Amino acid sequence: MSLSTVVQHTAVLSAKCALFVFCRKYLLDSLYKDLRSLSYNEDTHLSTGTGSTDNASDGELELDPLPTSSSRVATSRSMPSPLSAVSGLFPLNRKDTGSMQSDLARILFSLCFEEGCSLFLLVMCQAVDILAPTIRRNYFRTSLGLLAGLVVVIIPLVQCLLFTYRAGLHRKKQGTRIALTALPYLLYIVAFFHVPLPSNSDGGFFTNALVRMNVLGTVILGLLSGFGAVSTAWSFQPFSKTSEVVTERDVASASDALERVRSDLLARQSEARRSGVLDQGSSWFSTSFFKGNPGSALLLEIDGLRALESQMTRNLEALRLGLDEREYRKTWQGRIWVIFGKAFAVYCVIRIISSIRNVIFGPSSGSSGTSSPDIVTYLIARFAALFPKIPLSQDNVASLARQISLFLVGCIILSSVRTVLWQVGRLVKSNSKTTGAAFLLLFLAQLMGTYLLSTLIQLRTSFPPSKPPPITTHPDESTDSAEPTNVARDSEPSSNLFASLPEYQLFGMLFDGSFLLAAAVTSATIWAQRQLTRAEVFR
After folding, report:
1. Domain residues of the chain, as ranges?
2. TM spans, by residue (predicted)?
């Protein structure tokens, strides 16, 4: 191995380690704290900071004081360390289990970030002809396989472990939990390999796995971008000059009403504790079949007050956010943010209209079987083609427009990723902020890896590797003794990194259909919620 080869290997490995350390030490510090604030559920939201609801005696519900105006979520700051998600497989004590979940999620997220960025760095090295082609190709294929394995195999397995985790589970029941974890994971693997492939897909096992991953990624990106487009457009309301304004009086009224409900709830709990009703339990069977019992009626009233308290707490938090947003919009930074937000909301509306046109009328004739880009990205690409130093043909303009459209889709998803994570956190119903934050971090790693791979494959489709030229012989020589004149050129396509990727069009009917489905459901949900309450359904 020559000195130049050693230097190149050292440079690539150093860059990969630097990306991993940067994500592990700096990027995740603020991100993980934010995810912990999004990972609470109704039970942990109402529990005190001295213990969880699992430790509350006889189902008693202890309440936190109302949040201050600067707080975002009324959650406790200290939580007990739960059992690890893999405690049945590794002998860990309770003190180390919370950090085990956090460290595992951080490592997997950092690996996804590092491998995804490494792929793009290698593509840039190919563009400027840095590093040897063999080294670029080997590291590219290794990073591609690791990223696909993380997104498709490893992260879903860890998510299943976290999803089936329950604090305080007895050691003897770990076998049942492992079975409950293995069943959905095996179903997921079977369903993944039954994802239909495009008609022109004739690659090997790994190539077909990448295509299946991109089919699922197309659906996921379409759903998330449809959700983000509607929520962004509705938040800024670019075509509306007036909107309902939250005032301090609204916040004070909601706070007083919540205090009264909490006082009633504490009073009913004290009454139930004195009468011994809580000792009988509050199972679904007892409250359903013994409704005539005064104790059961009291338990039903307590459950109703709990649900009311939870809803009023969310409404109060949404009102506080609206008040903070109104104050922020009065600053010069807020005014600039509103201008960009309204412009981006206009683009979201145009993107929805373009998707409707693509679904109804089909792709345009010049898009080679894919949905034509929306008018905004097409105009941006045409404007770039006007520069004399950027000569672009009609096909290159369409390719550039699709790249810009993919970038703007990423911006749409990024603009609503906090809301998406908050909704996922509500669905997961984790009994620990550590477990919930780990699950959300893994979900974010999957989303990031899927988007990066989709971007690379879209680049490969827009700028495909050149096909090998046919082997030619000299006309004055016989066929048996002839030697090809382009042996060196014949191996050229294998050194192109894009040759390792399958050809797949992201913007098609599948993406537009998923986009419109999510947009329609989100619009109906926001409209219905605003008819019932002034609080925002998505924050």
Report:
1. 1-43+96-194
2. 144-165, 177-195, 215-236, 336-355, 404-425, 437-457
